[in-house]
Amino acid sequence: MRFIAIGTCIKRQTTRVFISAALVHTLSIFTQQTAADQPWPSHKTFMIKKKLAKKQRQNRPIPYWIRMRTDNTIRYNAKRRHWRRTKLGF
Q: CA-based diameter of the chain, in Å?
C-alpha cells in the first residue's frame, strides 16, 4: 500500500497528514472548491438517488393484465413522464 503525504493549512498551522492512496480520491471530494475542478459529472445524495429510483420505477406502462382486469377502461398510464419534457423539480 502506498502512502501519500498531504499538507493542509488549518488556522495558520501546517499539519501533515499521511493517508493511503485509496483514500486520496475520497478526500478530494471534500477539498474541491468549484464544479469546474471536478473530473466526474455529478454527485447525488442518497435521498435524491432514492427519489430518482422511485420515479424511474413509476415511469412505466401499465401491465397487460390490468387492462384485462378492468375491461380495457384503463388503457395507459396517465402519469407517464418524458425525461426531457417534464422535469421532477428536485
A: 75
List helix spans (H) across 32-84. 46-58, 64-69
Torsional class of 40: left (φ above 0), alpha (ψ -120 to 50), beta (otherwise) = beta
> What is the mean predicted confidence (pLDDT) over 68-90?
96
CB 51 within 8 A of CB 33: no
With a CB cutoff of 8 Å and minimum separation 6, the contacts of 49 are: none
CA distance linking residue 63 with residue 74, whole number of Å: 10
Structure confidence by residue, pLDDT tens digits, 29-60: 555 555 566 566 689 999 999 999 999 999 99
Look at the chain and count its residues. 90
Mean pLDDT across the chain? 79
Locus of grid cell 455529478: 42
